[in-house]
Please model this.
Amino acid sequence: AQSVTQLGSHVSVSEGALVLLRCNYSSSVPPYLFWYVQYPNQGLQLLLKYTTGATLVKGINGFEAEFKKSETSFHLTKPSAHMSDAAEYFCAVTPGGGKLIFGQGTELSVKP
Amino acid sequence: DTEVTQTPKHLVMGMTNKKSLKCEQHMGHRAMYWYKQKAKKPPELMFVYSYEKLSINESVPSRFSPECPNSSLLNLHLHALQPEDSALYLCASSQEETQYFGPGTRLLVL
Model:
């Protein structure tokens, strides 16, 4: 069975600092991987996805993630945090057939 | 355009009420989903419709009744809910395994 582990339920960074949110997955087949962001009282917004091809994926709002098969990881990064990045971030993998397996989420706080 | 719309944004209902949540997408996606999300938790899948037919029901209680009138619309009918059903209800649609979510309906059951 596929699963997703997000290391750290809460991450705090200073404005302008590097953002690194960790995601590891387990999958017996090549996965499709996703990062979603959820701002307070809103739905989930797709940040970026990996399906096939280039392992470094660029998304919206300056975020990117790198698929590393050997490490079964798909960590999310942003070079310089902005106050508006404060939100809940979910990593997800799909085994196909309409199901998304979510990690438990990481709450990102940005300090001025 | 990757927009999924949901109405209403907020809903308060008593345990004896009947209400419905509505979801709409005009992206031509043939799969649509209902999720339930509690605070500080990831969304939990409830139902999946594929080509207007129910393909997955994650053992959801019968007080939740989904309906897919056409390829663009998805409803969730609510009846005799319990206070523990209070949550954010999210709709999504998908193309090629990528799901796009609506803004959600915040439901409070009194």
Notes: The interface with chain A takes residues 2, 4, 6, 31, 33, 40-43, 45, 48, 50, 55-56, 90, 92, 94, 96-104, 106 of chain B (CB under 8 Å). The mean pLDDT of chain B is 95. Residues 35 and 46 of chain B are 5 Å apart (CA to CA). The first strand of chain B starts at residue 4 and ends at 7.
